[in-house]
Structures are given as C-alpha cells and as structure tokens.
Specification:
4-stranded antiparallel sheet, 46% strand, mainly beta, 6-stranded mixed sheet
Length: 116
C-alpha cells in the first residue's frame, strides 16, 4: 500500500528552482519527523533533508545546505522541498519517508533532472 505520493519534479536548467511535494496518505504524519531522500541509478538512496514533527528543527546534507529548504504542513499532511540554485549533481529521483527507521513503504518518487 502506497503511503507517500511525491510530485513536482521535472527538467530544469542549472541555477533553476523546483518545489517538490509529498502527500502522506497515512494517519500519523504529524506524529513523525520526516525527510527527503534521493537516489541515482546504481547508487544507494541518500539523505537530503529532514524536519522535526512540528517543523521547529531542520537538518540538511552538506551538499544541499543553503540551497534547499524543507518544510511541512501537518494540516494538509504534506511535506515540501524547495530546491534553489539546482546543479547537475542534484539530478536524481527524490523520495520522502520518515526521518528515522523503520521506514514506511517507499513511493514512486519524483524525477528531478538538472540539465542545460
């Protein structure tokens, strides 16, 4: 059963911006810290950004710090990732899930391609 539905990806030029959304179809969104992850073919899925249950604390991988902003709307059960100043190395499929294990089932992800 799919719990997370990611959207908002696409093709963007270097330096551009995108905003990803993740809708949680489950029941416990507001009770869990959440995160964004990304994966490129042949590599492990990696952590990008995380946020506490009420959004008062955020965490970023060094590679995206200062460019990406994670946020959440608990009333809408939605997680966001604002991505600015995108680089070619940000190209990946982006997923949302719980920040801490055990993870819920993974959604289909949202493809982000940064290319001129």
């Amino acid at each position: 059963q799919v719990q997370f539905v990611e959207s908002g990806g696409g093709l963007v030029q270097p330096g551009g911006s995108l905003r990803l959304s993740c809708a949680d179809t489950g029941r416990a969104f507001s009770g869990r810290a959440m995160a964004w992850f990304r994966q490129v073919p042949g590599a492990e899925r990696e952590f990008v950004a995380g946020i506490s249950r009420i959004g008062d604390s955020t965490y970023y991988d060094d590679s995206v710090k200062g460019r990406f902003t994670i946020s959440r709307d608990n009333a809408k059960k939605t997680l966001y990732l604002q991505m600015n100043d995108l680089k070619s190395e940000d190209t990946a499929v982006y997923y949302c899930n719980r920040l801490l294990r055990p993870f819920a089932s993974w959604g289909q992800g949202s493809q982000v391609t940064v290319s001129s």
